[in-house]
Recover the amino acids of this structure.
């Protein structure tokens, strides 16, 4: 009983504080001090429920829970060309069903710096660190051989990331260059650490008032501590066409080259394409439709410690509608369909095709500059059993909460 009462007390305290700030008639959220410093704070409090709490294809159990997400931001304008910002966050989530529970805690910090080098060139640098811990408590009865034995599984992960970008914006040309590094470090029970490195380049050229050509390329290296290093290259090209004042079309197609050391096929070539339409039906209603398909390799172990290859066609069709009912109320409805077709190279893998549909409705209401409310409902049938090929299980989830900004 104590935890719900503590949550209610926190919610009441945030509401009283936010109302007090709103009635004070100040200049909006944030505390401004010194020479250009701005300090902001917010907390989001919410609850959720879903009918398939363990994402299972059988023995579905419903579950509910709550979360608290405080955050703190600090920014400073460094003259007329540069700015600095940092953000800190903490998320505490508690979920449960009749017998089991799942606790999740995460926290982190991000730093960012941007500078306008000239009228057309810009530089940005960022770094971040986050830690997450997921504790799963299994009640008695999870093990048929030991029906009175409970169990606790703990999974801890640290993530590090750094990136730098250079951009150019001209009358006809737009260019971007980027470099990234990331590291994922799991706890000792997993004993895995993986580093990733990436380079990217993008270019856009305005052919006419309504037509632009786009080109992008990237290279990434994945270097896991307990596995083989893999390298991938990607090259995409296409165009963006403004068909009318309200309708625009973007089409991209390209190839990716995957080099997996130690596997049956060391190098694969995977084609992909993306089509997207956006339509502004009115001042308050916007529609979007996109189709993405890719052909890629998938590796598995044949049971004799030999790596084998199968190929997969993945198709994803997504449509969305965003409605601005008023200056304070927004809603979005999205529908996604996914189909995964396995093209087997060995016997027994040709029947593992997969398909699912997902629907989501999100809405938010802003009472004032300090208080807002959000809610969402979603349905999906993407629970998949790789042993049996069963993809008939579904999941319904409800979320509701409030955000207070100081």
């Amino acid at each position: 009983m104590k935890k719900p009462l503590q949550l209610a007390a926190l919610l009441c305290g945030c509401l009283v504080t936010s109302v007090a700030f709103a009635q004070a008639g100040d200049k909006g959220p944030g505390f401004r001090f010194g020479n250009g410093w701005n300090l902001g704070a917010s907390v989001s409090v919410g609850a959720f429920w879903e009918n398939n709490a363990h994402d299972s294809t059988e023995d579905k159990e419903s579950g509910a829970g709550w979360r608290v997400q405080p955050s703190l931001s600090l920014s400073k304008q460094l003259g007329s060309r540069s700015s600095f910002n940092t953000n800190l966050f903490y998320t505490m989530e508690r979920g449960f069903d009749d017998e089991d529970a799942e606790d999740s805690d995460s926290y982190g910090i991000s730093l960012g710096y941007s500078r306008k080098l000239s009228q057309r060139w810009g530089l940005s640098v960022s770094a971040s660190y986050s830690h997450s811990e997921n504790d799963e408590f299994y009640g008695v009865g999870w093990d048929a051989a030991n029906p009175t034995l409970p169990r606790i599984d703990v999974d801890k992960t640290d993530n590090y990331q750094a990136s730098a970008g250079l951009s150019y914006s001209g009358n006809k040309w737009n260019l971007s260059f980027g470099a990234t590094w990331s590291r994922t470090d799991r706890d000792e029970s997993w004993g895995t650490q993986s580093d990733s490195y990436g380079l990217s380049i993008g270019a856009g050229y305005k052919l006419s008032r309504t037509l632009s050509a786009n080109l992008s390329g990237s290279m990434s290296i994945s270097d896991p501590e307990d596995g083989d290093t893999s390298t991938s290259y990607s090259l995409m090209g296409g165009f963006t066409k403004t068909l009318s004042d309200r309708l625009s079309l973007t089409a991209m197609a390209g190839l990716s080259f995957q080099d997996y050391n130690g596997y049956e096929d060391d190098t694969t070539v995977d084609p992909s394409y993306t089509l997207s339409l956006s339509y502004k039906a009115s001042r308050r209603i916007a529609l979007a439709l996109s189709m993405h398909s890719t052909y890629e390799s998938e590796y598995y172990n044949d049971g004799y410690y030999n790596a084998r290859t199968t190929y997969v066609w993945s198709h994803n069709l997504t449509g969305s509608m965003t409605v601005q009912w008023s200056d304070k109320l927004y809603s979005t409805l999205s529908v996604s369909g996914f189909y995964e077709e396995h093209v087997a190279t060995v016997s027994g893998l040709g029947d593992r095709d997969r398909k699912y549909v997902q629907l989501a409705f999100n809405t938010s209401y802003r009472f004032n500059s300090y208080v807002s409310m959000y809610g969402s409902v979603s349905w999906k049938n993407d629970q998949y059993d790789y042993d049996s090929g069963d993809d008939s299980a579904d999941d319904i989830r409800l979320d509701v909460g409030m955000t207070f900004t100081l």
